[in-house]
Design a protein that fits this description.
This protein has helices spanning 2-25, 33-39, 44-64, 108-120, and strands spanning 91-95, 98-102. By secondary structure, it is mainly alpha-helical.
Length: 122
């Protein structure tokens, strides 16, 4: 029972610290971390300790999750035969090992979707 109580207390503390960290990260522009800490009654060193502990807990949670890779369908309109690629003028964008060729006919919505997928792909 003691370990369960400790675990619950740790989780509660981490939740409080995470809320403080969000508040600090949303502080007004131009306000230093040390100034925010002073206003909230904690030292700058204590803030960074709490930040480190929250990040560590988040990484532990993420490392326990299993990530599966999935196939992302690519719309036909952005795919061009390799023979045509050199003759089509446009812009080449490289994101995470992907090269995306954008032309004037590429819709902004499609480009936004493709860039979002490519940014999160491994």
């Amino acid at each position: 029972m003691n370990s369960t109580t400790s675990l619950v207390a740790r989780q509660y503390r981490l939740n409080q610290w995470a809320e403080q960290i969000r508040d600090c990260q949303n502080r007004p522009d131009g306000m230093a971390v040390s100034e925010w800490c002073s206003l909230h009654g904690i030292t700058k060193a204590n803030y960074y300790y709490r930040l480190k502990q929250v990040r560590k807990a988040c990484l532990e949670t993420v490392s326990q999750e299993k990530f599966t890779q999935s196939i992302v369908p690519v719309p036909q309109e952005i795919m061009a035969p390799a023979a045509e690629a050199p003759s089509v003028s446009g812009l080449d964008i490289s994101v995470n090992r992907f090269c995306i060729h954008v032309t004037e006919s590429t819709s902004p919505e499609l480009l936004a979707r493709v860039l979002k997928v490519a940014a999160h792909a491994e």
